[in-house]
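Long-time lurker, first post. I've been practising inverse folding by hand and with some scripts of my own, and I keep getting stuck on stretches where the structure tokens seem ambiguous. Below is the full token string for one chain I'm working on. Before anyone asks, I'm not after the true native sequence, just a reasonable design that respects the backbone. If someone could post their per-position residues I'd love to compare against what I wrote down in my notebook.
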């Protein structure tokens, strides 16, 4: 993997983007660990309509979400920066890469997809009941339990995570309208033409055991863009939650150990 790694000091700042209906608080201590263990300067930015932006309507296209995130970049960020993006955040990152003016040095895309990956790969049939339950339930705890069970295979930590996720939702409520609007934006997103991404190094990471989005989506995108693909064998869709140690180890190999 060392031949795929970047120069140690090439990237000082990293942007972190979360996925569908999630916000920066859902990273838990993962970002702090990246700062401590990798020496990165990390900046988590919420997608429009969620987290710090929860009172705003979520746009109906990935491009509009990307443009809004770009407008909220920290003023002191060092360019070119890197991006770590999970799930729907990965779609935003792909669109950003296709429209980059040299401000992005590398992107690490985790458990992401696009419309051209195929519907049944983007949302596995077995995940549909949990998705509907999360959308239709009136109970915050019931919604968050359905989401947690769908995105995480590490059951041992669910009892600790569930009240944390409920507290996040109660503190900065994610409306069902915004979740539906995000789903519409995601459903419309086609991966950019490969020629638009040939100036930026990217990496795809996924899990063979993802029960929400098939790892075949990452395989398809990695092949399309000629980016390396790293696969976990047992983690769920939310890799930073299920195996942070492994994921940080992968980051270290890709970025630090050049």
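-- Answer (accepted) --
I ran through it position by position. Result:
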């Amino acid at each position: 993997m060392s031949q795929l790694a970047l120069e140690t000091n090439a990237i000082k700042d990293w942007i972190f983007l979360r996925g569908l209906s999630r916000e920066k608080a859902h990273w838990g201590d993962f970002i702090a660990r990246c700062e401590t263990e990798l020496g990165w300067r990390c900046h988590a930015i919420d997608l429009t309509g969620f987290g710090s932006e929860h009172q705003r309507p979520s746009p109906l296209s990935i491009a509009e979400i990307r443009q809004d995130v770009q407008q909220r970049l920290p003023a002191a960020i060092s360019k070119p920066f890197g991006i770590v993006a999970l799930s729907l955040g990965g779609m935003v990152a792909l669109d950003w890469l296709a429209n980059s003016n040299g401000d992005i040095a590398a992107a690490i895309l985790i458990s992401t997809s696009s419309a051209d990956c195929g519907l049944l790969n983007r949302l596995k049939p077995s995940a549909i009941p949990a998705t509907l339950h999360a959308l239709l339930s009136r109970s915050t705890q019931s919604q968050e339990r359905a989401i947690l069970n769908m995105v995480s295979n590490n059951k041992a930590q669910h009892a600790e995570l569930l009240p944390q996720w409920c507290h996040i939702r109660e503190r900065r409520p994610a409306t069902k309208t915004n979740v539906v609007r995000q789903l519409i934006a995601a459903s419309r997103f086609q991966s950019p033409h490969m020629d638009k991404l040939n100036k930026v190094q990217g990496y795809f990471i996924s899990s063979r055991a993802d029960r929400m989005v098939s790892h075949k989506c990452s395989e398809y995108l990695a092949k399309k863009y000629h980016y390396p693909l790293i696969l976990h064998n047992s983690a769920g869709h939310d890799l930073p939650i299920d195996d942070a140690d492994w994921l940080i180890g992968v980051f270290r190999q890709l970025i630090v150990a050049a």
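A couple of notes from the structure itself: The CA atoms of residues 134 and 143 lie 4 Å apart. Strands lie at 13-17, 41-44, 81-86, 104-110, 201-207, 229-232. Happy to go over any region you disagree with.
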